[in-house]
Write a structure and sequence with these properties.
Number of helices: 2
Helix content: 25-40%
Order of helices and strands: HHEEEEEEEEEEE
Distance between the termini: 95 Å
Strand content: 15-25%
Largest sheet: 5 strands, antiparallel
Number of strands: 11
Strand order of the largest sheet: 1-4-3-2-5
Structural class: alpha+beta
Shape: flat
């Protein structure tokens, strides 16, 4: 309300006082500049007459001419200032003051409506809170009565495992601690049937299917291997680790089908999932295959030279890669082939062909050449 009152006074003050004063000052500047221009013109005319008679110098004539030009410029500036003040500044200032007054009036009406609604809401909340308090008192009395008969018993005897602490909630299980509804307190695992949770990288997720056989190696029993099968695979990847969006893994569960000795839940293990069984194929060590310009090559010994041969690769594991074409059984392939940058382009066979062109000999401290098998 105070803003509305002050806005009305500001608008009246501008209309009746500030704007007339601004316009009068601008008009006064124009009038004074006009008189100064007239005086400068009269002085210039007199100097011209004196100069013709030899009583004034050309320098004095030029100075009076310059003064006339200066006054003309000042008159143009004053006239333009009055035009801008009349056509732009005055309408804008009036609109700002009118809008300010209008907004203040609208705000007063809106606040009054809001206050009325808030009062109604407060009365409704008070009524609801009173009724809720009555119900909760009755519920509290019932819970106190039930608490006298509350006891929790394990269904069977066995190993007790505490759950993993939630890193967001930080709810550690300890004596005297507070627990929330549906919070997991302990679990009683059946160690006769165990499963392993594995991470499957994004580039391998299409190879792993439910029901595939697997072999589990427990770190606590390094000399033992247990059979299992893929129980389930997550449909969505895990959140990025350490903020790295390129690290994407899918969780999978492996059910151990072999009988287990007495082990503890939570131990670490390594799992080999059998995704395919290949028979009667040619394989070479993975380090023997070099990728150059989207093509795969092996380097074959021919005499004292190592020549590149384009190959077609198939499935692979951590040690060997299947060679579907390009290398024959008994060929000697380089375990330490040249780097892609050390092989000139002209030394590579043309695409789709298999000519063996010798490459520049590269010195190596170890160049074991096993036979492809």
């Amino acid at each position: 309300e105070l803003a509305t009152e002050l806005g009305a006074k500001d608008l009246t003050k501008y209309r009746g006082g500030e704007w007339p004063q601004l316009r009068k000052n601008s008009e006064s500047v124009i009038a004074l500049t006009t008189e100064e221009l007239k005086r400068a013109q009269d002085r210039l005319d007199g100097t011209r007459r004196l100069e013709k008679k030899g009583y004034a110098t050309p320098a004095e004539l030029a100075a009076d001419g310059l003064a006339v030009k200066r006054q003309k410029i000042e008159l143009e500036k004053a006239t333009e200032a009055l035009r801008l003040l009349t056509e732009f500044d005055n309408p804008r200032k009036l609109r700002e003051l009118e809008a300010k007054l209008e907004n203040s009036s609208t705000l007063v009406a809106r606040i009054k409506r809001q206050n009325k609604l808030q009062s109604e809401n407060a009365r409704m909340l008070l009524k609801a809170a009173t009724e809720t308090l009555t119900l909760r008192k009755a519920n509290l009395d019932l819970l106190k009565e039930q608490l006298k008969f509350t006891r929790i018993y394990a269904p069977t005897g066995g190993l007790v495992v505490y759950p993993t602490i939630d890193r967001w909630r930080g709810d550690a299980i300890e004596e005297g601690g507070s627990v929330r509804e549906r919070q997991e307190l302990i679990s009683l695992p059946d160690i006769s049937r165990m499963k392993v949770v594995i991470n499957i990288y994004e580039n391998q997720i299409s190879l792993v299917k439910e029901g595939m056989p697997a072999y589990i190696h427990l770190d606590s029993l390094p000399d033992c291997r247990f059979a299992g099968r893929v129980l389930s695979i997550a449909s969505m990847p895990e959140p990025a680790r350490d903020g790295n969006p390129n690290y994407r893994v899918y969780k999978g569960e492996i059910l151990i089908t072999d009988k287990l000795p007495e082990i503890k839940p939570g131990i670490t293990a390594r799992v080999d999932v059998l995704v395919a069984e290949l028979e009667d194929v040619i394989k070479v060590p993975v380090q023997s295959v070099v990728g150059i310009e989207n093509r795969q090559f092996c380097f074959i010994r021919e005499g004292s030279k190592q020549v590149p041969v384009e190959v077609e690769v198939g499935l692979f594991d951590n040690e060997f890669v299947e060679i579907r074409s390009g290398v024959s059984e008994g060929d000697q392939v380089a375990l330490a082939p040249p780097r892609p940058t050390e092989v000139p382009a002209e030394a590579l066979p043309a695409g789709g062909k298999e000519p063996r062109v010798p490459v520049k000999e590269v010195a190596r401290t170890h160049s074991a050449l096993p036979e492809a098998g």
